[in-house]
Amino acid sequence: MAGDQLHQLRLHEARRLLESHELSARDLTEACLARLDSVEPYVKAMISVCAEEALQQASAADRMRAAGKAKPLTGIPFIAKDLLCTRGVRTTCGSRMLENFVPPHNATVIDRLLEQGSVLIGKTNMDEFAMGSSTEHSAFYPSCNPWNLDCVPGGSSGGSAAGLAAGEALFALGTDTGGSIRQPASFCGVVGMKPTYGRVSRYGAVAFASSLDQIGPLTRDIQDCAVVMNVIAGQCEKDSTSAPIEVPDYTAFLGRGVQGLRIGVPQEYFVEGLQPDVRRTIEDAIHELENMGATIRRDISLPSTKYALAAYYIIAPSEASANLARFDGVRYGFSRQLATTEESVLATRGEGFGAEVKRRIMLGTHALSSGYYDAYYVKALKVRHIIREEFRQAFEQCDLLAMPTSPTVAFPIGSKIHDLMQMYLSDILTIPANIAGIPALSLPCGFAHGLPVGLQLMASSFREDLLLQVGHAFQQASEWHLKQPLL
Asked: Is the peptide bond before 156 cis (omega within 30 degrees of 0)?
């Protein structure tokens, strides 16, 4: 493959070339950095680029391979959402509050990748503190969708999805609190997985909503996703919420097909506002799974789905108001020093946080306040329990669920920024998986209005293997994941 095309490689293709010594990690990293220099002025996916450090890591990866110590991700360039702590590289969370913050430690997932000899290209743009669905709430600039630069890439992991789709790295990391991996994956035509809550350590990820946040991969195909999950999944002693459950070899489940599997199609997910062309594309994908041997069940019901959005916008802001209380200008981050401590804290938070973050802090603080706690927060937790129970019952009747990832394709930049309800509705189909803590996957399944459409699959807790098995089978029978934007 020509040097100017190396950035188009899938992870497993690059790994094969590295193992056969047809390619060096240094060459691959240089190709990604050259591609980044070429397209970044248009895509604006990155907040920080670590070019010099990346080349040093690539050279170290080549030495690691020469010494016979190579691992599955040795020499593979990646990008990471800018709320994952990286030692010596600033971590802004897309906010002025942390614009110059340089962590003294790595997130567990970053450590695990660097131990493999992976190459960190840089940190990606995001909605401030992961609060948004379009990356327009970044304190720095909005990112653009590589398929149409006038459209959003989704959010809050929009920079990760856009950078990957544009060829700036071979895989990316994001976080998903209410759909923040899956929705941008759908908008940008890549694969995005939200693992089961507790499957991947959250240590070193700046918290938004601690009971909902989960780190996961964005990749170009399912095989790549399985390889990355093999590395980042597993219990971590630094994260008490990470599950002490053995991690299987996810690549071992690829190639098993869908014959005999029961796939439920809950009609509650074919909501009002679902674009007709998106609906047709999803129905075509489900029909393809049926042709491949799966049994499609349309009698599966999740009636409390309609309450998930309301419950989420009580639970998530409530946890955010507590988590973001630490940003007061006293210990680290942006600080405005005035005559009194109270004035300083007010000025720091007033100037350091953007409008969407302030909005959610105020909403969460109100929901937790005296006289409202039982009426809002406790009631939302009860709804959460009901939703979890409905999913449990659904998975007694079928092996996994299939539905759209998003009711629409990527929308024009600026079209929803002042319409909060329409923006929040962008996540209506992804939020239930976070509420229930179950794994979910978005993979490319077609196009509508010239933009990618994502098929969403959900499974019961810790059945990421089943999602990858079905997703891989679908990709073996289709070519949607091979499409690339023309930049």
From this structure: yes
